[in-house]
Amino acid sequence: MSESQQLDADRIRTLLESEGDEIKENTRLFNSERYNAVKAVGEGAHEDNRSQAREIKADAIERLPELIDRTRKAVEANGGTVYVADDAEDANRYLAEVADDVDADSVVKSKSMTTEEMDLNEALEADGFDVWETDLGEFVIQVAEEAPSHIVGPSLHKSREEITKLFEEEFDPDESLDSAEKLTAFAREYLGECIDDAEVGVTGANFVLAESGSIALVTNEGNARKCASIPDTHVAVAGIEKIIPSIAELEPFAELISRSATGQDIPQYLSLLTPPVDTPAIDFDSSDEPHFGNGDADRDFHLVLLDNGRREMCEDDDLRETLYCIRCGACANSCANFQSVGGHAFGGETYTGGIATGWEAGIEGNDVAAEFNDLCTGCSRCVNACPVKIDIPWINTVVRDRINRGKDPGFDDVLVDGLVPDEEEPGTSLRKRFFGNFEAVARIGSATAPLSNAVASTGPARKVMESVLGIDARRDLPAFRRTTLREWAASRESRVADPERRVALYPDVYTNYVRAERGKAAVRVLEALDCEVVVPDVGGSGRAPLSQGMIATAEKKAETVAESLLTYVEDGYDVVAVEPSDLAMFRREYEKLLPEAAYERLDGNSYEVLEYAYGLLENGADPDALPAGDGDGVAYHSHCQQRTLGLEGYTEAVLERLGYDVFTSDVECCGMAGSFGYKSEYYDLSIDVGETLADQFEGAADERTVVASGTSCMEQLDSLLSPETRHPVELLDPERQ
Amino acid sequence: MSTGSVEKFQQSLSRLDTASTAVAPDELVSTVADLVEPPAVGAELPFDGLSLADAPVTLDPSPSRLSEAVTGVSGSRMGIASLGTVAVESRAEGDEFIALYPERHVVVVRASDLRTDLSDAFGWLRAEFEEDRQSFILATGPSSTGDMGALVQGVHGPEEVHVIIVRDNE
Ligand code: SF4
């Protein structure tokens, strides 16, 4: 987002229209190719590579100063030069000096995000050098004077037709460039001459090997090979975080990088270069002399290692992981929001997609991250996609928290007094407090239902909500139940005399106050499978405040919930959750919020309700106690965070076991994502993402019962298809109508 | 170190739209001659007893010969059977240019130099690094791009790759 435009509803709408189609097609292709490639190599082998890669990165970042030192020694021993640049300006100045020293007129570059970060092209051009991007995607962007929309495919928001128009206008070729082949041939020739003429070749480096002073480059086009070998002077530019100890540590990354990026087992070209290389220099001035012109030029190599905020990131416990990133783009491709709007919305000055928040916060500052950070809904689909296992949603949450605290505390505090949890400093905006403390809203709403529902849904009330809280008036609001799940459960006797197991059913805020029917169904199903069920008096898991970046509040809630639930665990109860986003708190985010022992205990003893039912059936519970499916069709949408935990299969298995014919969606997220879809500026995006899911179910919805595990997903499907979406557990309910 | 099989290597190559021919050592020169589309340039092979001296290629070419060449012939001291990958070494003979400029790249690899998979190939690379041979391009199939709106082969590197596998002397 080079123009750093404010991300409002208009901007999002414009991007959805102008770039959405291309972005969707390309990111989804990369995404599905990644899934296929991982499957082909085997989940186990892939997982091993990820663990190894992460360990290597963590270790390398830990001892970065030493590795920088070793790199310098090795490169210098080989005859090259290392320059550690404090910031972009410093690095640009050094590069201009190198170009000046060899009397260069022009510089050719292969793809490098780090030089994008430095705005190297602008700097060199200001110093009078011609600069050519030779990666075709970068070349398109350079000609179009735009910013990259994706870490791996900088121009993937552009259609072939748009590129044809752009190139024909810019270069006025004799023949029309009306196919990808012709465009490629044209660019090959044009850039080929630029490379032959250039005095300096600049490449990035995907990895730097300290021990030998080598760089590794991952490319498909071959331009990096040319930029590194044809000009006599080669400058490789890399962030300091790219250093790993030696060739021995490169292997897992060689396995992972292309598989994660594009689903290739290996890139077309994996260059391992230890410059200055033995390839002779070409002397085009003696074009008829053998031995490549018999020039006597020496090869000259410079490695520029860029800091630009990275050493500070090393010291930052929450941002540090960002430095493990190998820039594969999988977090962007697996992100439903990114698939719709691309990096011109979901990105900062340089970086795009979920991890951009970490990079931009560390390099540019929180202000730049704040421009797009809201687009991460915490759906967590990138977590399993990331080859180095970075907890990308957590980085987004932490930065959101920092942004909240940094904001001017000028908002009207009177209105929200009751909604401000003490732990948050007053910078948190009104809307964040509203959504973050949805539990309080629900409690009051339920106590005064149905009046509260009637008032909230009136025109004037919706107008106020829209203008004060930014809640889009086109969304239906949750209708609060007068009788909560807890009250209902407390008023009835347990039905199981001699239970097989004992369950503490977690009454998440939605199930307790809004979707009580799915909680009741869960109780009856578990009882039918011979479990004693209690519904503890325990509050919100902290998911809502966490999603607003209110970490201190979330932490408090986590402590309270864990304290209460763990007493049940001590008494031999299993914790079962209906809402996957809350279960994901127990099993993922609580690791960050709770002492290790408490987290592990709760993680090990909590289950999603259908996961639990599956376990009961596998261990001898009688499926005949539940109504049979009789071959009825079900269209099932699992929940994003449930899928990240690997739990969607249990729902499918249980439904199939009961005789249902299950069709499962394969979209990454429903687009609603808690409060996200309610926010006015994101309404169109939320609907755009949701439509992909609705399209998948469109044909099926007539003959199939639509079920979804998450509250948000149910709301999105209700609004896009018909208001009859149910939780899968409701199909299992012995009292089902 | 285990060696990968010729059949596996050829299967992998065919998945990459890369043709391959397995020959005996004494058939090498005639095979190269068959596969070369002139004008052709070459880098002398890094193998004892195998040479391009008698093949219809210009070794050690001038810059203009290199630019005009349609075919480039070079050797690879390693192939990866599971992937169809070859190694282009940065040598004074100019392998890197020969393998990069012309539209067609003909690569000569010895059957005994085939490795089973990437992990096996990394074993080889580590050993090479120890011996101070530290610059290789692991090349897999022709160069390609999707940046112009559809997948196209032949960008800055070759559009077509043909691998000659030289069998061991029986
Ligand atoms: S954060 Fe992970 S998934 Fe995202 S670009 Fe970096 S390495 Fe790839």
TrEMBL record, chain A:
Superkingdom of the organism of origin: Archaea
GO terms of molecular function: 4 iron, 4 sulfur cluster binding; oxidoreductase activity
Pfam families per record: Fer4_8, LUD_dom
GO BP terms, alphabetized: lactate metabolic process
Protein name in the entry: 4Fe-S protein
Domain named 4Fe-4S ferredoxin-type: residues: 366-395
The organism of origin for this protein: Natrialba aegyptia DSM 13077
PANTHER family the UniProt entry points to: LACTATE UTILIZATION PROTEIN B
Lineage: Archaea, Methanobacteriati, Methanobacteriota, Stenosarchaea group, Halobacteria
Automatic annotation (TrEMBL), chain B:
Entry-linked SUPFAM superfamilies: NagB/RpiA/CoA transferase-like (SSF100950)
One Pfam family named in its UniProt record: LUD_dom
Domain LUD: 67-166
InterPro entries to which the protein is assigned, alphabetical: FTHF_cligase-like_sf, LUD_dom, NagB/RpiA_transferase-like
Protein name: LUD domain-containing protein
Annotated source species: Natrialba aegyptia DSM 13077
Taxonomic classification: Archaea, Methanobacteriati, Methanobacteriota, Stenosarchaea group, Halobacteria
